[in-house]
Amino acid sequence: MIEEFEAIDVNEDIKSKRYQYAMKRVFDIILSIIGIAILSPIYMLIIIAIKFDSEGPAIFKQVRVGMDEKKFTIYKFRTMIVNAESKRTLDIDPSNIDSFVFQSKSDNRITKVGDFLRKTSLDEIPQLFNVLFGTMSLVGPRPEIPDVVKYYPDAYKQRLMVVPGITGLAQVNGRGEIELGKTIYYDLKYIKKFSLWLDFKIIIKTFANVVKKDGAF
C-alpha cells in the first residue's frame, strides 16, 4: 500500500484551495466558540463524573504531531487510569506499518466513565479548545502520536500537510478500528477532495455514527 501512496502528490490540491482553507479557519473559530459555550455545563458534569470514578486529573494531555510535523498538546477528557501510557507498549512493526491499529477493543486501562465517554465521543470535546487555538480543525486527519510518525515513510507524511481534525474521513469510515494503511488512504483522499461541503458532510456523518456508536470502543 505504501507504493500506492508514493504516486500521490497533494501539494497542488492544497495550493489551489487556499481560499477555502481560509474560510475553514473562520468557521473553526466561530463553531468552536459556540460549541464551548453550549457544552460548558456538560464539561462540568463530565469532570465531576471522572473525579468520582477514579483518581487523577479530569483532563488528559498528550503530545501529538500536527501540521508540518509540529508538535502540540492535545486535550481530552481522561478515559483511562492514571499513568496508563506507561502500562502499554505500542506494538509497531516498521516493516508492516500499514496493519498498525492504535486502539484496542479489550483495554483494561479504561475506566467505567471513560468507557462511556469513548462510546459517545464525549472524551473528544475538550479539543474544541485546540480548534480555537488553531492547532486543530473540526475536520481533518487525526493528529498522530510521535512514536508512530517516526516510522512514517515519506508518502505517509503528506497527511501532515494540513491541520489535523477532531473528526475526519477516516473516522466516519471506521473510527478507532481501522488499520493505519486505510487511515492514510482516507486522509489523503480527504486532502485531495477537500471542500467546505465535504467538511459539512463529514460532521453530519460523525454525529450519525456517534448516535449509532459505530466503531466506538
TrEMBL record:
Sorted alphabetically, the keyword list is: Membrane, Transferase, Transmembrane, Transmembrane helix
Q: What name is this protein filed under? A: Exopolysaccharide biosynthesis polyprenyl glycosylphosphotransferase
* NCBIfam families documented for this protein: EPS_sugtrans (TIGR03025)
- What range(s) does the Bacterial sugar transferase domain occupy? 24-212
Record's InterPro entries? Bact_transf, EPS_sugar_tfrase
Cellular localization per UniProt:
Membrane
**Mainly resides where?**
membrane
Answer yes or no on keyword Magnesium: no
The answer to whether the entry has keyword Transmembrane is yes
Q: How does it sit in the membrane?
A: Multi-pass membrane protein
Q: Family per UniProt?
A: Belongs to the bacterial sugar transferase family.
TM helices/strands, residue ranges: 26-50
